[in-house]
Amino acid sequence: MQLAADELEERELRTSSIEIIDYVPSDPTRRMLTPPGSVMVFLDREGAPLLDRIRGAVLERTGEDLRLAQEISDLFRAREKVSYYRAYRLLREAESFATIRYGARTLATHVFPSPQAGLVAIENPYNGGRLSPGELTLVEHLVPGTTARLAAVAVRHMPPLTEAERAAVDQVPDDQLEMNLTLRADCCDTWTGFVEQLAQITHATYYCLVMGASEQDAPLSAEEIEKLGPTASARKLLNRRRELLGHHHA
Q1: Sequence-separated (6 or more) residues with CB below 8 Å from residue 85
Q2: How many CA atoms lie within 13 A of 52 on its CB side?
Q3: Which of 60, 64, 101, 181 is least enclosed, having the fewest CB within 10 Å?
Q4: How far apart are CA 173 and CA 180, in angstroms?
Q5: Angle formed by the axes of helices 230-246 and 163-170, to 10°?
């Protein structure tokens, strides 16, 4: 971890906004590109065909999302684990690796496409509230002088909310919108952080992320929302999404 952190000091920076697009699955009963109540950031090398296909499948709504979700799942499943040292060497060899941020919150660090398979998927729990599109950023850490670039697209899948829950998250003040999106952090493998980069390079937690995550516990009552207020209600809804997305296993 320290060696990986030290690598940041040797790199130049380039920052760009990540486009957020809304996803409505063609068939909610089948494997989806991203589960409800999440924003999945897909990252690859600039010009990678798979990123364009993901964007097209979400925007055009032709049913291609189902085939693409299976293809991505198979892609991640085919990856093999590597040692921590090998993961660090791959990081050092990458011309560019990335930090993903929403506002001042870091969602993922030391993110880079694997040399062979490419695509990275970073799932972030989301409570359905407003997001500031310009605040979701890709920060590239570049080898000085390189022309390599990374690209990313964020796919947002709205969670099911009651009218009272929707009213609560809509009232979160503009200066508190950062609380509507967070990193996935639990006891299981995640897409976040350098240690978890092993998962990005090697094996698919993707399957357990996108299957079974539509389960929903009891909604917040109007009385509970009134007692908590909009900000605390939004925080509780976000914690719910983190729980639902973080403890399902295939």
Answers
A1: none
A2: 5
A3: 60
A4: 11
A5: 110
* pTM, full prediction: 0.81
Question: pLDDT digits over 68-117, tens only?
Answer: 999 998 888 877 777 888 888 888 899 999 999 999 899 998 899 887 77
CA angle (126, 130, 133) in 5-degree steps:
90
User: How long a stretch of residues is the chain?
Assistant: 250
Please tell me the distance from the alpha carbon of residue 27 to that of residue 156, in angstroms, as a whole number: 16
Q: Is the Cβ–Cβ distance between 78 and 117 less than 8 Å? A: yes
Query: Cα-flanking dihedrals φ and ψ of residue 196, to 5°?
Result: -70, -10
Residue 157 near residue 32, CB atoms below 8 Å: yes
CA terminus-to-terminus distance, the chain: 29
Alpha helices (runs of H) in the chain, residue ranges in sequence order? 2-8, 49-60, 64-77, 84-93, 163-170, 197-202, 206-210, 222-228, 230-246
Confidence of residue 186 (pLDDT cuts 50, 70, 90): low
User: How many helices, marked H, and strands, marked E, lie in the chain?
Assistant: 9, 8
User: Measured in whole angstroms, how far is the alpha carbon of residue 51 from the centre of its chain?
Assistant: 14
Q: Has residue 233 got a pLDDT over 60? A: yes
